[in-house]
Write a structure and sequence with these properties.
The complex is a heterodimer of chains A (351) and B (309).
Chain A lengths: L4 H20 L5 H8 L4 H9 L4 H4 L8 H22 L4 H25 L4 H7 L18 H8 L6 H7 L4 H4 L2 H23 L1 H25 L7 H6 L10 H7 L4 H8 L3 H8 L9 H16 L7 H25 L6 H4 L5
Helix pairs in contact in A: 1-18, 5-6, 5-18, 6-7, 6-11, 9-11, 11-12, 12-17, 17-18
Chain B lengths: L1 E5 L5 H12 L7 E5 L10 E2 L7 E2 L5 H64 L3 H7 L6 E10 L2 E10 L14 H109 L3 H12 L8
Parallel strand pairs in B: 1-2
Antiparallel strand pairs in B: 1-3, 3-4, 5-6
Helix pairs in contact in B: 2-4, 4-5
Classes of the chains: A mainly alpha (351), B alpha+beta (309).
Chain lengths: 351, 309
């Protein structure tokens, strides 16, 4: 029912949309980033951040501050905001919010499974998990001895169950390379999310499908470039590409046979949206590709806030917050390692 | 005067008894001091003379002189060789020192750049990349091996690293950040190279230091203790031998003197006897007393001016 959301959206989603827009306005601006880049020590950074929304989270930290502490506390803030929103949400918004965190959940599951395979301690593994991706039975992942048990005992109750059953039979789980497993799961997750958003319809569907398509294409390009020269066969590579997006299906055909970064560039130049990304890189260089993708993503995420009455703002807010935390991590590491000249290499200004 | 007696000497009272005769000093005036430092090979007691360096207490014979001279030659040759060894080691030492300084500087740079490569990887691939990589590892693929190198006679340890097995996880960060992870890996491999080299340089430095100290100690010992001792012993032996010779010579001369006097006495006695015989004959012939015969003879011995023929 496109166009009539204004009538009914605010009944269930109005409060949370307002909350999210309020959070969005507290994202750090370019002038904040400039101030942070001028800092000489981590204590200066802490001082600047205490003037922003991060103040209450950082002010109790003892003085020899470590970059990982800063990142941890900022992530904690994000988790708190997310939990608050999740509590207040109703269907279908609550499902939507949960979908946003499945990516982190997949990462956590894979981490614990590999750790258990190599006989590491469960408590240590749990500490290393991303807080957004925690679920209740996560600790029992460590109990399972092999993949079949793992699936039967634990995963079948989690929301990740359908991803496992769709794409992986239980024999594969034992031998398959961890990265391939992670990427197959993520592909299934993206496709599922895409379907869910389409079902929601309206402005949400339009904006979210756009954002998810960009995500899928970005992953396809990255997978291609990172698997050049490794043992990953072309068929395996193709299996990891999602079945939606701008590049589907013809772009995927071309990407699957690429053996070189320049070939990838050639394949992507047919899509004007991505052409601008590659124009920023000179020939043969692929280091800054990730940063270029992040910049493009941030632009699109900001555009999502231009419209009202859709769920895309929540997704966009989470992603923007994550980017901000990445920026903060980069700035603090540069300051801590005395590499101030490289600070501007990777900071993506949100606005 | 004091003596030093080797550890393990039994019954040093008997030593005392023999020694006081040798030294011409009464037993009560000899003080005993135990010294642990006497050389294994030299089983003689070392005598300290006031104000000079020591000499060995040996029997001053010609054979002993030969032995001592041979020992001195050995000590001199050993001293020269050890000095050469010490010089060679010092040269190596300085070279290693220079290399250590330059390697340490480059290590600082490389560690900085590899830490930064890790930051880049974390930025692109997410904070968890460290944990993901760590959890996936079974055992180390870069290992360090040590071997011995012989430098101027000193065994120096040298470390080198080698890759064992291949690294799986080429696919780490497949969807994002794979490139950065590989770059980070390369940076840290370089860092390991430098660290291993620095480790072997530093251990060689320490070992060489020890070796140089020992060698210098030996050189100084030879130069300042052993050789003077040998020389003093040789001088002493020569002195004793000379003295013995002089004694012999003196004895000989004295005996010769005695013998000469004996002979003269005998000759004088024989002459007197002959004279008496002649006097007896004359007295018998002329019928005068022996005394007047003696006088006659003696007068004929002294030339009488009145007697013409």
């Amino acid at each position: 029912m496109y166009g009539f959301e204004a009538l009914t959206f605010n009944i269930h989603g109005g409060y949370l949309e307002a909350v999210v827009r309020g959070h969005r306005s507290s994202l750090l601006t370019a002038s904040d980033y400039n101030n942070l880049c001028q800092c000489e020590t981590l204590d200066d950074i802490k001082m600047h951040l205490s003037a922003t929304e991060y103040g209450p989270y950082l002010q109790n930290e003892p003085s020899p501050l470590h970059t990982t502490t800063i990142v941890e506390k900022c992530t904690l803030k994000l988790v708190d905001e997310y939990k608050h929103m999740l509590c207040q949400a109703t269907e279908p918004l609550s499902t939507f919010l949960e979908y946003i965190t499945y990516g982190h959940m997949i990462d956590n599951v894979v981490l614990i499974v590999t750790g258990t395979l190599h006989e590491r301690d469960v408590q240590e593994l749990l500490e290393k998990c991303h807080p957004l991706g925690m679920f209740d039975s996560i600790a029992s992942l460590a109990v399972a001895q092999n993949m079949r048990e793992l699936y039967r005992l634990v995963l079948v109750d989690t929301p990740l169950a359908p991803y496992f059953s769709e794409c992986i039979t239980s024999e594969d789980l034992d031998d398959m390379n961890i990265e391939i497993m992670r990427n197959t799961l993520y592909k299934a997750y993206l496709e599922d999310f895409y379907k869910f958003c389409k079902k929601l319809g309206g402005a949400t569907a339009e904006i979210m499908t756009d954002l998810l398509a960009f995500e899928a294409d970005k992953r396809a390009v990255n997978i291609t470039i990172n698997s050049i020269g490794t043992e990953l066969t072309r068929d395996d590579r193709k299996k990891l590409y999602s079945n939606f997006g701008l590049l589907y299906p013809y772009g995927h055909e071309e990407l699957a046979v690429c053996e070189d970064v320049d070939q990838v560039r050639g394949a992507l130049e047919k899509y004007p949206a991505y052409q601008s990304i590659f124009a920023k890189l000179s020939y043969g260089e692929s280091q800054m590709l990730d940063k270029a993708f992040y910049e493009e993503e941030v632009k699109r995420l900001c555009l999502a806030f231009e419209q009202q009455f859709h769920y895309g703002v929540f997704f966009a807010y989470m992603r923007l917050r994550e980017q901000e935390i990445r920026n903060l991590m980069w700035i603090s590491e540069c300051v801590a390692q005395n590499q101030k000249s490289r600070v501007h290499d990777s900071v993506v200004f949100i606005f | 005067m004091w003596l030093s007696i080797k550890r393990g000497a039994q019954n040093f009272s008997s030593h005392l008894r023999s020694l006081d005769g040798l030294l011409g000093v009464h037993r009560s005036q000899i003080k005993i001091k135990f010294s642990v430092k006497t050389s294994r090979r030299i089983r003689h007691l070392i005598v300290k003379m006031s104000g000079q360096s020591q000499r060995l207490n040996v029997v001053p014979t010609v054979t002993m002189l030969g032995i001592m001279k041979a020992r001195l030659v050995g000590a001199t040759r050993g001293h020269a060789l050890l000095k050469k060894k010490s010089d060679a080691l010092t040269v190596q030492f300085r070279a290693i020192l220079k290399k250590i300084v330059s390697t340490k500087e480059s290590m600082g740079e490389i560690m900085k750049s590899s830490a930064f490569a890790l930051t880049e990887a974390k930025y692109v691939a997410g904070e968890n990349i460290k944990h993901i990589v760590l959890e996936n590892v079974q055992n180390a693929s870069l290992k360090v091996r040590s071997r011995q190198e012989n430098v101027a006679g000193v065994k120096l340890p040298k470390f080198e690293y080698f890759t064992e097995g291949e690294t799986k996880n080429d696919l780490t960060g497949l969807a994002r950040g794979g490139q950065q992870v590989q770059q980070c890996r390369a940076a840290y491999v370089k860092a390991i190279e430098v660290l291993v080299e620095l480790a072997s340089l530093q251990t060689s430095f320490l070992t060489l230091d020890e070796a140089i100290k020992t060698t210098n100690r030996r050189v100084n010992a030879l130069e300042n203790v052993v050789k003077p001792r040998m020389e003093n012993t040789i001088t002493y032996i020569k002195g004793e031998l000379d003295e013995l010779e002089r004694e012999d010579f003196f004895r000989l001369k004295k005996i010769q003197g005695y013998k000469k006097r004996e002979i003269e006495k005998q000759m004088a006695a024989a002459k007197q006897y002959a004279e008496e015989q002649v006097a007896e004959k004359v007295s018998l012939k002329k019928g005068i007393s022996i005394n007047s015969a003696h006088n006659l003879l003696s007068k004929t011995v002294e030339k009488d001016e009145d007697i013409i023929f």
